[in-house]
Recover the amino acids of this structure.
């Protein structure tokens, strides 16, 4: 599975948030590397769990900034974050509880969702935060 990359056009003009987005990409790539390597359920569940925890941390931080500037599309944006957390939690359950590997479909969902969210939804609060 292909690694993903942060590019300058994904910047939201806030160093702190850009660094968190870069960290999310780095954690996704660790998960991709671990799932490309020989199957190791402990490594895979650890990297998936880390990605989930860091996503929650990032979303809370981003939502706090949006509340601070009274971002008009706040509710809808939070729903998108909640949707991602729900999906990743269910992947965690499959991998951790059922000791199954991350599937190509899971990786594809995580990578595509993150890149699309950074490129579209997170760009929309750019002028506000
Ligand atoms: Fe967001
Ligand atoms: Fe974000």
């Amino acid at each position: 599975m292909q690694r993903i990359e942060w590019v300058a056009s994904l910047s939201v003009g806030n160093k702190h948030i850009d660094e968190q987005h870069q960290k999310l990409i780095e954690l996704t790539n660790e998960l991709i590397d671990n799932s490309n390597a020989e199957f190791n359920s402990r490594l895979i569940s650890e990297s998936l769990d880390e990605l989930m925890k860091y996503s929650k941390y990032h979303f809370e931080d981003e939502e706090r900034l949006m509340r601070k500037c009274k971002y008009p599309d706040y509710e809808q944006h939070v729903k998108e974050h909640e949707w991602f957390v729900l999906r990743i939690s269910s992947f965690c359950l499959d991998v951790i509880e059922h000791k199954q590997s991350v599937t190509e479909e899971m990786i594809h969902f995580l990578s595509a969702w993150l890149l699309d969210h950074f490129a579209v939804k997170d760009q929309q609060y750019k002028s506000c935060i």
The chain has one domain: 13-125. Residues 13-125 form a domain with the Four Helix Bundle (Hemerythrin (Met), subunit A) fold (CATH 1.20.120.50). The pocket of fe (ii) ion (ligand 2) is lined by residues 21, 58, 62, 122 (CB under 6 Å). Helices lie at 15-36, 41-68, 74-98, 104-121.
